[in-house]
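Supplementary Text 2. Reproducibility record for the structural model of the 513-residue chain.

All settings were left at their defaults, and a single model was retained for analysis rather than an ensemble. We include the record here because the model underlies the residue-level annotations in Supplementary Table 4.
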Amino acid sequence: MNTATICILVAIVLYLLMMVTVGLVQSRKTKNTSDFYLGGRKLGPFVTAMSAEASDMSGWLLMGLPAVALMGGLPEAAWTAIGLAVGTYINWLIVSKRLRIYSEKLGAVTIPEYFSKRFGDKKNILTCIAAVVIVIFFVPYTASGFSACGKLFASLFGVDYHFAMIASAAIITLYCTLGGFLAASTTDFVQSIVMTIALFVVIGFGEGITGGFGTVFANAGSMNGYLDLFKGFDVGKGVTTSYGALPVFSTLAWGLGYFGMPHILLRFMAIESPSKLKTSRRVASIWVVISMAVAVLIGIVGFSLMKNGVVGPYADASAAETIIVDIARALSKYGIIPAVTAGIILSGILASTMSTADSQLLAAASSITQDLTQHTFKVKLSEKFSMWFARIAVIVIAIIAVFIAWDSTSSVFRIVSFAWAGFGAAFGPVMLCSLFWKRSNKWGALAGMIAGGITVFVWKFVVREVFSGTILDIYELLPAFIVALVAIVVVSLLTKAPEKEVTDVYEEARKAM
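Retained model, structure tokens:
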């Protein structure tokens, strides 16, 4: 092991030790399951903002998005980033304050619990279905994070992918089981800072060794359509592609997913005061725009580096997900200080992955221990046993995610896009109707949740396969979101209006907003 590799390893180990330390510190503040899953609604505005966005971005920000930009040019990467930026801002603007006030008034600490209490579902059917949806989509989402960590260490140190993936999963699981939501949110805040540093260091180094941004864009422009938002260039196949209005709207639909992301919505519920959400909104929106713009730019810089033989070549976007790792490795060859800097870059990749995986582990665990076990099946547990049960659930879900992540060739971007669609369609329309439409009822919510989730699977694995290359070959979130919204409206209007006690609480919450 040479000096550069040792420097990188030391930087990463110090970073990981810092994350575990945070878990130990926050474990002292975690007294009950409400603290474990929602932090006792004590988050400050900056931690709320940055932990929400760090948990949102995951490994795809530093690995998936640059790879898509590198191998396909601007269209898919840029329109995805634009859709997410717009979705982020609107979510903070219209959902955050309403959900914070409403969830506290109802005494809900999880998203499934909020749905049942909001719609007066005394049998907790909504809680059960929502919890099942969370487990179905969050476990593979978590697995994508473990996979990203495994790819990082396997590519960097030449170790076995499976060993690296399991070790990474163990560390994430450790601080989650120790400190719960407070540990996840605090580490996410730190990780967002590390991610930001990593993004800018990578772009600066990449731009420097290619001869400046003039050279970068000249190389990209030499490929017809590479920098065209409505064309694109498939680097793997060496052909120009088209990107019309339908694919644009389909890709922009990524922004719809925000309305249904449990790990983001929980941050809204956890902030210490609704009045501080405006600050959080501004911080989150600015960070998202800057970080995604830089991530896309890294992909374009990566194309020049690949063309010059510094990195790659890559066969497809899945293979290109190691681009930032390869750039860090190239940087480490310039001396001890650059090697330490490379370690910070690679810690940024870990940060982006860990900040999402920890939140997903907690959300999935809460669905099993709180929503299914205690609320749906009415199993009475002591506070002390509930805490142990919660921690055991985190460990079990992590083990399942490890098995799902066993395939080292899986694409982080594709797994994330499917899970994102699942949550966006199953929960997004229900969340919006719960906050803005008093007439919506539990049967409409149930219909929308089921219709949205099923449509994602049908559209992804049936419609897009059968009609590949046609007008129906679009991102599954868009049609599924529409189907779910229509189902909520139609079923709510065809069934009995909500009880007076439900609408009274709605009015009380609305006045408080």
